[in-house]
Write a structure and sequence with these properties.
alpha/beta, about 50% helix, seven-stranded mixed β-sheet, about 10% strand
Length: about 400
């Protein structure tokens, strides 16, 4: 049964048949923003377009949004909207398609090209939580950088969470996006702006990830026609985890892990979730001072151990337990233990190191990190993560 909710300014639709909500929107002109050909090959695009046409809408599309969407793509989409003048925008795909659509809608209305359209986000991966956030990450390839845009105007009006749309997501992408969810939950939880409400969403999200991500990853290795109810349940729960983490970090902010992943991805074209996952144990260790002097955030990392049923004793032991469990999960999902394992040549890494450290320091996500870093500390963290130095 479809279950509507109103939360954080967005209407949230989930459950069986939720995609049919598109037929109730009463729009006249709808544009679908999407990525590659997979949406059409899988039949998902035609299903979404079909519901909109049933409601009497004229439907157009802007396809080909690349991974790590660029400002060039965003402006091309804004120009398309100027020509078509839609009253409904549907973002269909992973975080890249949703982020691009958010930026297109925001910039085209801000520049007077278009009256801001009603915006519906339909994620087909369980990762970014972009469907309920005020964030959009856009790339500038010429500068080897990614820029997070942050504005309440970026928040979609509605989000539709249908796990049926994730059934064909490959195992590697399931792992990468799922670990991005975990990073969102962790960083929101220890953020300097966290509160009781963001903590509640982050705690539930991290529990769901630790319980269901490996199951969803294994399900992704099966043929679609062999998926069981439990496999689909794992997919749906990861969809929920992604959305909950999005709610948490949209209100509490993120941290240094994302700042480092942004510049690492910009320089070496590493998938965002994978970059986050490799960096995560190192940044967690740094933030709580596991190897040096205990930091104030140690208590929060220790509390994660209780949330995840890993309680081991003292705060330091509990924090260690959380980091170990995180690294174990990453290993089970095929994630390398260091940046070198991502295929980055040492010379290329060292050549980019100073620039990456400066960029991570300047990234807006660093502002809510629980421990205030220096550029030199970030540089050393990158080196540690590249070499894979033993953490604990």
């Amino acid at each position: 049964m479809m279950r509507p909710m109103k939360l954080a300014g967005s209407q949230l639709m989930f459950g069986e048949g939720c995609l049919e909500h598109l037929k109730t929107l009463g729009c006249k002109k709808a544009i679908i923003i999407t990525g590659g050909s997979s949406m059409k090959k899988s039949g998902i695009f035609d299903k979404v377009a079909g519901y909109l046409k049933e409601a009497g809408a004229e439907v157009d599309e802007f396809g080909g949004v690349e991974a790590d969407p660029s400002f060039k793509t965003v402006w091309a989409g804004a120009e398309k909207m100027k020509e078509f003048q839609p009253d409904l925008i549907v973002a269909l795909g992973g975080g890249s398609a949703i982020d691009a659509a958010k930026a297109m809608n925001y910039l085209s209305s801000r520049e007077g090209m278009l009256k801001k359209a009603y915006f519906v986000a339909i994620p087909t991966t369980s990762g970014t939580g972009s469907e309920v956030t005020t964030f959009s990450v856009i790339s500038a390839p010429d500068k080897k950088a990614k820029y997070p845009l942050i504005s309440d105007e970026l928040l979609p009006d509605a989000a539709i969470l249908d796990a049926e749309l994730t059934k064909t997501v490959p195992a590697a992408i399931t792992a990468d996006t799922g670990l991005d969810v975990l990073t969102h939950a962790y960083e929101a939880y220890v953020s300097s702006r966290s509160n009781d409400f963001t903590d509640a969403a982050a705690e539930k999200s991290m529990r769901l990830v630790h319980h269901y991500l490996l199951k969803a990853y294994k399900a992704a290795q099966k043929p679609v026609d062999e998926l069981t109810k439990d496999d689909l349940k794992a997919r749906q729960k990861m969809h929920h985890a992604s959305c909950l983490a999005g709610m948490a970090f949209s209100n509490a902010g993120l941290g240094l892990n994302h700042s480092m992943a942004h510049t690492l991805g910009g320089h070496f074209h590493i998938p965002h979730g994978k970059a986050n996952a490799v960096l995560l144990p190192y940044v967690m260790s740094y933030n709580c001072g596991c190897k040096t002097v205990a930091q104030p955030s140690l208590e929060k990392y220790a509390k994660m151990s209780n949330v995840l049923w890993l309680n081991a004793g003292t705060d330091r032991q509990n924090a260690f337990s959380t980091i170990r469990a995180t690294r174990t999960l990453c290993t089970q999902l095929g994630i390398p233990s260091n940046l070198k394992g991502l295929g980055i040549a040492e010379k290329d890494f060292m050549d980019a190191l100073d620039e990456m450290a400066e960029a991570a320091m300047a990234d807006s996500c660093t502002a809510t990190n629980p421990r205030v870093p220096t550029v030199e500390e970030i540089r050393n963290l990158f080196i540690e993560a590249y070499a894979g130095r033993v953490l604990l």
